[in-house]
Write a structure and sequence with these properties.
The protein is of the alpha+beta class. It is built from three helices and five strands; from the N terminus they run ββαβααββ. A hairpin with a 4-residue loop joins strand 1 and strand 2. It binds FE2/S2 (inorganic) cluster.
């Protein structure tokens, strides 16, 4: 199971082993990561699962798809180059060690 770490605004870290195939919004909610809400349940209609992928991991997480890209325009926290909607990132063994920064909302 890949280990994922969420770094909160202010520096506190929450880490969890996430089953392969689960999306990282669900994993954040299951591990009580603050400020990752996942209001729409992962169907790309709320943008409340916004995170910033650590730059070292950009190549492995890939880029947002077209619909995700549109939804990233309505995030509460500012959109940045590394912005992703975490419901669209699926846990794989390749993502073991992934670091996601969580904007405070
Ligand atoms: S949970 Fe709604 S867009 Fe990700």
């Amino acid at each position: 199971m890949p280990k994922i770490t969420w770094v909160l605004d202010g520096g506190r870290e929450i880490s969890a082993n996430v089953a392969v195939g689960h999306n990282l919004m669900e994993a954040a909610v299951a591990n009580n990561v603050p400020d990752v809400i996942g209001e729409c349940g992962g169907c790309l209609s709320c943008a409340t699962c916004h995170v910033y992928v650590d730059p070292a991991w950009a190549a492995k997480t890939g880029k947002p798809g077209e619909m995700e890209d549109d939804m990233l325009e309505i995030t509460t926290a500012e959109r940045r180059e590394m912005s992703r909607l975490s419901c669209q990132i699926i846990a794989t063994e390749e993502l073991d060690g992934l670091i996601l920064h969580v904007p405070h909302i």
